[in-house]
Design a protein that fits this description.
Layout (H helix, E strand, L loop, with lengths): L6 H11 L2 E2 L3 E6 L8 E11 L2 E17 L4 E13 L1 H4 L4 H14 L5 E13 L11 E12 L9 H15 L13 E2 L10
Antiparallel strand pairs: 1-8, 2-3, 3-4, 4-5, 5-7, 6-7
Helix pairs in contact: 3-4
Amino acid sequence: MADSAPLPFRAAVDALRGARLRPEIEIDPTRAPQRLAPYAYALEAAVVEGEDDLADGRLVLLHDPAGHDAWHGTFRLVTLVRAELEPEMAADPLLPEVCWSWLTGALQSRGLSAGEASGTVTRAGSHYFGGLAERPPASQIEIRASWTPREGPGGTPDTATHLAAWCELLCQVAGLPPVTPGDASVVSLPQRRGPLSR
């Protein structure tokens, strides 16, 4: 990790790297966006069952030591989550509200606050024609969201718990049953080397 990064940011990234996650989650560092904040760190994850990816997503931690008016803080979490849907679920008119409640509920169940939360839930359907006509129709849900985590001692948010909540959202979108915080089925995130972006 770059020694020039502020201590609160380095601590927040260390907490992400040491988080304990559900065994269905495969996660790796990925390239972080360069222009959203002075410091950024990104993870990509998938919910895997056998050889199938049931859902995937990206979580980005942003940090601006000077603060950001729109964030009302110095840190921001930004996410994208996607999954294929069963036709019956895709047809549910309440699906967007339900998906948003999975995010807020996952945070609340762990005692986390999501300051200045905003986002979109998009439902998309594909129908195939011509040479692709044999494929069945497909539906996908996409959740884009961002929120400001509450900063704790030393100005560092509890990013490990935010990551666990985000992974719970991924699992719910994938159709897996939720687990309670502290469940013994969670596993430690392997230590992987990934460049810290600035």
